Structure formats: structure tokens, C-alpha cells
Amino acid sequence: MKKFLAVLHARNMEFLRDRSALAWNLAMPFMLVFGLAFTFSGSNKEIYKIGIVGGIEKLHSAAPALQATKYISFVPYDDLHTAIGKVEHHQMDMLIDVDGAPKYWINSSSPNGYLLERILLGTEGNRFERQTVEGAEIRYVDWFLPGILGMNMMFACLFGVGFVIVRYRKNGFLKRLKATPLGAFQFLFAQLVSRLLLIMVVTTVVYGGCNFFIKFNMQGSYWLLLLIATLGAMSMISIGLLIAARTASEELAGGILNLVTWPMMLLSGAWFSLEGAQVWVQKLSLIFPLTHMITAARTIMNEGATLSQVMPQIWVLSVMSIVFLAIGAYVFKWE
Amino acid sequence: MSPIITATNLIKQYPGVTAVDGIDLAIPKGICFGLLGPNGAGKTTTIEMLEGIQMQTSGTVLYKGEPLGTQYREEVGIQFQHTALQEFLTVRETLELFEHLYRRTLPIPELIELCSLADILERDTRKISGGQRQRLLLALALINDPELIFLDEPTTGLDPQARRNFWDLVKLVKSRNKTIVLTTHYMEEAYALCDEIAIMDKGRIVSQGTPAHLLSEHFGDVILQIPQTDAGDKLAGLELSAVEAGDMLEIRTNRLHHTLQQLMEHGVNLDRLRIRAWTLEDLFINVTGKKLIS
């Protein structure tokens, strides 16, 4: 424990005294959240979204004219309850159930829902039973915030840890530590905790600072959100440690880190929802910890999810953290 | 005296290269043992196998008669040839970091005094001079009060004054009954510090013993140096082993009295005659056929 705390303290001091790196870590997410919030919060989506329960193929016979209408995206759902929740939060403009007697749902306060209803009535007549739901709109920034914070955490976790360890290895500091009784796991765990503490402090400051101006939607528990963020950060730091476990070249480490971060950034739902994407893309996205962290954070913030509702993500992130860290410590080389 | 560390038929091979080729060593406790050799001779590879930092391809290393185990790290001190420290820490913080990595340590104030670090304690380790840095690295090597200390070319790159200061420090450490294994390519350093030396070349030990013993073993004679202008052509007809060395004439002889008498009889001016002793550098050239610092 003494060794772990000594290495943890030294690493924290190194980071906190590196003012340029610290300033950048604080400023970057602020700039991103503000920039994107002001850019996107007032804009409307160009494509209308209709959720379909009962299968897209049945829609063809139930509402062929609607299906042929341009600028409408049809998103299949298996669970009616989940799909209705999307309409309640204005994440889906309309929901159509083609299983049995055709029905549709719109949010009574959604302009898009109103317009789609007029289109449905105009193309398919009165064959669909009307249902309405209530619910406040989730602004784009509320949907976007977990993604942007998660993405910033991902970069800080992977590059912040990966490059530091490669630098230590390259300049011989790891070799110096190898000459001491310090174990690989103690060293790596100290790096993990150091980075985790710093990321959680920075992310909390950024969230609090942005919230002061933008007033984010928060339906669930802040403690649960903190737990998810902590587990998400741990799992991504562990990936960084694993990548840096043997790499001695910054160029190679940079390449591998980019190889991991780019798919994660594009497929984790940070920038755009994967609803409606190919099934294999959705399945592939589940291999990334960022996907689970963002999904859980969004449901906590926007839908008020409870601990039991995000338990699958908690399990996945915990297992990923343990497995990646264990493999990293096993294959770790000091030189 | 029983050896504190022994190496038997130590071999280290890299693809296409044999860096260390069957070395046998037994280093007695309490001495300063020097590994000498030019760059690429295999000194660092050998010392790193003794340190347990590198694994040998074959052969054995025993510390106090036992294979190197986890306890070894607690009991040895190492100063690498090339190393780095955690950035943005002061000298004091760096000492404290390493102090916490060991179960048993020397008191930090004692180390500070021993290695003369008092004036730079609050300085960032990136902003200290080369000599100060070497003293700090030695302090880190001593922090666990080791019985066995490895110093890999500790004075390379230091100016002559800093180098001599470092020698004084090493002598002080040695006076505490520590065993020191030192690699260097400075013969003067080896002569000043080492009780026993091994000369390495191409991964092998080509000569080993105390400096005095090796010099007497390899050189039974002395060198007389006379300015060429003083000798003129008066040496003609004398059976002497003389070679030109710059503007001097060097005469090797193992019959000093007889040679001096011959020179005087032939009217050679001996007012500026010098007798030069053989050095470890001469020894190195003699046993390897090459200059030491390449």
C-alpha cells in the first residue's frame, strides 16, 4: 500500500504541476460542450423519425404510401414500452404499431409529431388508431452532453495513460522502477487511480461549470451517474494501460490508440444515435466501454434510470476494467 | 573472503550477436570491483544480468550463494548508465518517492548529507547539473542501505572536477563496507576506485586481478622518456627497444641501471629524462590490441 500511494502521489504531482497539460484538460471539454451546445441546441433535425413496432416488412402492407415518403426514417423497435418512452422524450417523432390493429403514438406537444400525423392521415386515411403521450422534450444538448463528456474522458483515459507509460519506458524511468521492489500491478494500479481521480475531478468541474449556464436535464441520481462515469473511466484507462503494456514507441502507441479511439468515437453513440443503424453495427458497438457508459449516462440523465436499470452496463464496465487491467499487468514489460 | 555475488558461464545472445560470451566472476564482499572495456564490450549487459534487470541466455548468477529472488531488489542498489526520473518533482520528493518503495531505508537526512544534496533539495530534478544529478542517482541507489551497489558508468559526461567529486563520494560509500560493482571506460577512475578489475572485450573477460598485480604481470619493465633532441644520433649502435612518441623517444627496459649507464656512456643528456610507469590504458592496449575509448 505504501508503494502504491507513493507512486500515486508522484504521478498526481507530475500531472498537476504540468500546467499546460492541466489547462488543456480543463479547457478542451468546456470549449466542446459550449461550442456544440450553441451550434446544435436550436436546430431541427432534417429527417423525421418514426419508430415501428411489429416489423418494418409489415409496414409495407400497412402503410405503403407513408413508407414511400421522403425524409422519414423508420426505426424498428422490439419493445413497445421502450419505443413509447422515446416518443415521450421527443427522441422519436411518431411510433406506429403494425402488430394487430394498426395504432400510432405522438407526443401532444411535438410539432414534428403533429406534422407526421397530418402526413399519415393524408397518405393512409383514418385506418390507424390515435394514441397520445405527454412528456417534455429532451434538448439536443441534453442528449449530447453524456456523449461529449464521455468522449473527452475516453481521450484523457487512453492517451493520458498510454502516452505517459510509453514515455516512461522510452526515457528509462520504468527501468529505474524495475530496479526497486515495486510490482507491475502496483505501478499500473497507481497510474489507473491517479488518472481516474484527475479525470473525475476535471469531468465534475466541467459538468458543473456547463450546467451553471445551460441547466442540463437530470432525471436520475447524481451518485449513480458518478458510479457509471467512474466505471467507464476505469475500463477505458485499463485499455490504455493494456495498449501501453509493451509498447516502446510513441508512434506505434499513437497508431494503436487511434485505431481504438476512432471506432469507439464513431460507433459508441457519442455523436449520433445508432438507432436505425445496421444490426451488426449496433452489436459491434457493444464491444466498446464508451457505448455502455454513454447509454447508461443518458438513461440516468434523461429518463431517470435506477440502479437496477443500468445494472447490465455496470456489470459490463466492471468486467472490462478487471479483465483489461489484469491482462495489462500480466503482459507488462518495464523495458 | 566469500563472494557476495558470483556469475558462472554467463552468456547473453541477441539475434545474430553474442553480447556476453561465457563470463565467470566471483566478487568478494566489501571491495570495489571494476568492469572495464570499450563501448560495446558487453559491460552494461553483464552488469544488468548481475543486477537481475536482464535475463541471461544461459549461465547462473548467485547472490550470497542463492539464485536472485524477489528479496534481491530489497538488498541491492543500482545506478543505471541512462535513466530518467519522475518529472516535475523536487530532489526531496524524488528521494521520498524511492524511500517508500523499500521496506528498510537509510534516514533521508543521512543520505542528503552523504551525497551533499542539501543545497538542491527543493530544486526540480530537471533543473540540476550533471554532477548533482549523478549524486542524486547515487543517493537513490543507496536509499535502501544496500550491501551491493552497481554503478554503470556513473561519471560519463561529467567534467573532471565533478568526476573527482563523485570518486570521493564512492570512496566514502565504500568505506561503509559496501561492495561496489563499477563499469567505466576511464582507466584513471578504475585505478582510483577499484580493488579488483576485469577487462572485457567482445563479450569476454580478457584479464582480471588487482590493478597492481595485472600491471606487474603484463609489464616487467619501465619506460624511459627522453626528448629526441637530447638523444640525437647517440643511440646508434646501442641495443635498445626505442620508439618515437611525438617529440619524445620512449625506451622500454627491464634493466634500468644498465640502460642508464649505457646512455650516459654514449653522452646522452639525461637532464630531462622521465621514467613513466605503465598504466591500465597500456594494459588494455596490451591485452586487447586497441585503444580503450573508442
Helix/strand layout:
The complex is a heterodimer of chains A (335) and B (294).
Chain A: H1 2-17, H2 19-40, E1 48-53, H3 56-62, H4 64-67, E2 72-77, H5 80-88, E3 94-97, E4 103-107, H6 111-124, E5 129-133, H7 140-171, H8 173-178, H9 184-214, H10 222-244, H11 250-267, H12 279-285, H13 289-303, H14 311-331
Parallel strand pairs in A: 1-2, 1-3, 4-5
Antiparallel strand pairs in A: 3-4
Helix pairs in contact in A: 1-9, 2-7, 2-9, 7-9, 7-10, 7-11, 7-13, 9-10, 9-14, 10-13, 10-14, 13-14
Chain B: E1 3-14, E2 17-28, E3 32-36, H1 43-51, E4 58-63, E5 66-67, H2 72-75, E6 76-79, H3 91-99, H4 108-114, H5 130-142, E7 148-152, H6 160-174, E8 179-184, H7 187-193, E9 196-201, E10 204-209, H8 211-218, E11 222-227, H9 228-231, E12 241-245, E13 248-253, H10 256-265, E14 274-276, H11 280-288
Parallel strand pairs in B: 3-8, 3-9, 6-7, 7-8
Antiparallel strand pairs in B: 1-2, 1-4, 4-5, 9-10, 11-13, 11-14, 12-13
Helix pairs in contact in B: 5-6
Give an overview of the whole structure.
The complex is a heterodimer of chains A (335) and B (294). With 335 residues, chain A is α/β, with parallel strands linked by helices. In chain A, a hairpin with a 5-residue loop joins strand 3 and strand 4. Chain A folds into two domains: 232 residues, no CATH class; 86 residues, D-Maltodextrin-Binding Protein, domain 2 (3-Layer(aba) Sandwich). In chain A, helix 10 packs antiparallel against helix 13 and helix 13 runs antiparallel to helix 14. The mean pLDDT of chain A is 84. In chain A, strands 2-1-3-4-5 form a five-stranded mixed beta sheet. Chain A has 14 helices and five strands. The mean pLDDT of chain B is 85. A six-stranded mixed beta sheet of chain B has the order 6-7-8-3-9-10, sandwiched between helices. In chain B, strands 2-1-4-5 form a four-stranded antiparallel beta sheet, covered by helices on one side. Chain B has two domains: 214 residues, P-loop containing nucleotide triphosphate hydrolases (Rossmann fold); 57 residues, Alpha-Beta Plaits (2-Layer Sandwich), CATH 3.30.70. In chain B, 32% of the residues lie in helices and 29% in strands. Chain B has 294 residues and is an alpha/beta fold. Classes of the chains: A alpha/beta (335), B alpha/beta (294). The interface between A and B is medium-sized, with 25 and 26 residues.
